[in-house]
Amino acid sequence: MKRLLVPGAFAACCVPLLWLAALALTSNLGVNPVEEVIDDLGYTAFVLLALTLACTPLQILFGWNWPIRIRKLLGDFCFFYACLHLLTYAVVDQGLDFKAIADDVLKHKFIFLGMATWLALLPLAVTSTRGWQRRLGFRRWKRLHRLVYLAGGTASFHFLLRFKTPRVETVAWMAAICVLLLVRVVAAVRRRSGVVQSP
Amino acid sequence: MRSSEVTPRSLYIRRRDFLKLGAGSALAFSLPAFARAKVEHGPKLAGVTANPSYALPEEKKNAFEEITTYNNFYELGTDKSDPSDNAGKLQTRPWTVSVEGEVGKPRKWDIEEILKSFPIEERVYRLRCVEAWSMVIPWDGFPLADFLKKHDPTSRAKYVAFESVVQPQMPGVRGYAGIPFPYLEGLRIDEAMHPLTLLAVGLYGEALPNQDGAPIRLIVPWKYGFKSAKSIVRIKLVETQPPTTWNQYGGGVEYGFYANVNPEVDHPRWSQARERRIGELLRRKTLLFNGYSEVAPLYAGMDLRKFY
């Protein structure tokens, strides 16, 4: 069971991409396939970001260690889907018109928040290896990786602004991310005041 | 076509649910097995003549499937596929359209009377959605001007307000769509009287599918699609600019009253400079007034950046 955790999570993370490929191969992407692909990739990246953010709170709340073992995997896949999302937007949607993309990023907070999220995730993906952890020293590495909280925030608002009116689903995801952050804050405060020992 | 030949809506919907259910399991065996559900066609409209002045031969028309499965109609749900999935939740008979306000002859029309009283012509129009996608659609309808003139608008009729239907069983009305209902739209009287402005009752020679705003809707091809109110039940001529749904939304964060297609004026969240024609991969340039330059005199001397 334990040995299946990482390969199982890896396989699960591949499913959204395989599903999209199946839809594409059977021309089931609908009337606006470009929009569908961008939306699906972005949504997958967002869900993986939320799952990555859930690993530590699950350990804090329930004492589970298995989420921590797949946290790096989830984070890496989140960045992988975020890259595909951005690439589809830049290459297919915008036709690699860099002026149009720059305008879009600077003028519209919806796109700005999306780009900000990707930029926040970039150094985290690069330094997600054990080697980088050693090179930076664990304290510095940990401090850098707090950027993921920022990414959680910008991604939430990017997702919210995707639709003309706020959707129940999006607001629920934002609430979930808030709860996940709150669990850490409460744990940190209690740890600092010496109520609980850090695991 | 006799009504007995048409598959009852309830049966048709159940069949579709069955198809959806089957899709997941079919995937395991053969990928092409999960075919898309077909869209129901409406009855053929009688006596439709194509208007050669609005044939738009240089444009490729979008397919019926495209026009009927990718819609914005929040009363039937906020996803693009919701209106076609929930089309059965709109009841289009009996249907009345009330014309009131600053008119000499107010009248409550039965939809069947309207269909009999106005010669229906086919016009191929470009439709540009505020979301930066577009289609080319062969509408069947008649000029709004012909309809309004029957009611003798008074000199105080400066604007026309349109109200869309609200039915309690519509999923967007029951649940949360983010905008208040009824959906309200409006035009200046000269915009309403412009020969391009249409009341549509069909597309591709068939009665409008519910998801496209059956049984009667507005078409204003030089404005963003949301101005073209669907499933109209009330038309009121008024003296002052009427409130409209998206203009009121969030204190005016979405769009102004005019909402003319304009590549120079961005939406708050995206650029309007280019659009994706449904069926094409890369974007094309958006044209001022959606290419209908004949409406430019309506806005002579107006700052289109201010009145967007």
How would you explain this protein's 3D organization?
The complex is a heterodimer of chains A (199) and B (308). Chain A is an all-alpha fold and 199 residues long. Chain A has helices spanning 5-25, 33-62, 66-69, 71-93, 98-107, 109-126, 130-136, 138-144, 147-160, 168-192. By secondary structure, chain B is of the alpha+beta class. In chain B, 18% of the residues lie in helices and 21% in strands. Chain B contains 8 helices and 13 strands. Chain B has helices at residues 9-29, 64-69, 82-85, 111-117, 144-149, 171-174, 189-192, 245-248, and strands at 49-50, 96-101, 107-110, 121-128, 133-143, 159-164, 184-188, 198-203, 206-207, 217-219, 232-238, 274-277, 284-285. In chain B, the strands form 2 sheets. In chain B, strands 1, 4, 5, 8, 9, 10, 12 and 13 form an 8-stranded mixed beta sheet that branches. A 5-stranded mixed beta sheet of chain B has the order 3-2-11-6-7. In chain B, a hairpin with a 4-residue loop joins strand 4 (121-128) and strand 5. Chain B is globular and about 45 Å long. The interface between A and B is medium-sized, with 28 and 34 residues.
